[in-house]
Write a structure and sequence with these properties.
Distance between the termini: 49 Å
Largest sheet: 3 strands, parallel
Structural class: mainly alpha
Strand order of the largest sheet: 1-2-3
Strand content: 5-15%
Number of helices: 3
Order of helices and strands: HEHEHE
Shape: globular
Length: 104
């Protein structure tokens, strides 16, 4: 009876991984679509510890967007400061129309 439990566990892990990858792809597609069809969006914030979103961040910069990335070990601390930092950054960005970049 030990073998079926391991097979179910493996299948479940596989399905979870597939679902996670599908979610990542959906987020990526949505972000690029928004960047292309809504020119008023100048700034995007990506909050993740997943380094797999780096190509997305670089593509958004190529499209002229400013990208803020919150992630890594200190993500929770960065998220705590997000509200005021993004508000301040958006105000400055609106005033100066800075060149697109990635902020870490």
């Amino acid at each position: 009876m030990g073998a079926p439990t391991q097979e179910i566990s493996f299948e479940r892990r596989l399905l979870l991984r597939i679902h996670s990858n599908m979610a990542d792809m959906a987020i990526t597609a949505e972000a690029v679509e928004l960047a292309l069809i809504v020119p008023e969006i100048d700034v995007l914030v990506i909050a993740t510890q997943d380094g797999g979103f780096c190509p997305l961040m670089h593509k958004l910069v190529d499209l002229g967007k400013t990208v803020y990335w919150l992630g890594g070990e200190q993500m929770s601390e960065k998220v705590k400061r997000l509200s005021s930092a993004v508000e301040q950054g958006l105000k400055q960005h609106a005033r100066s129309k800075k060149k697109a970049s990635i902020k870490y």
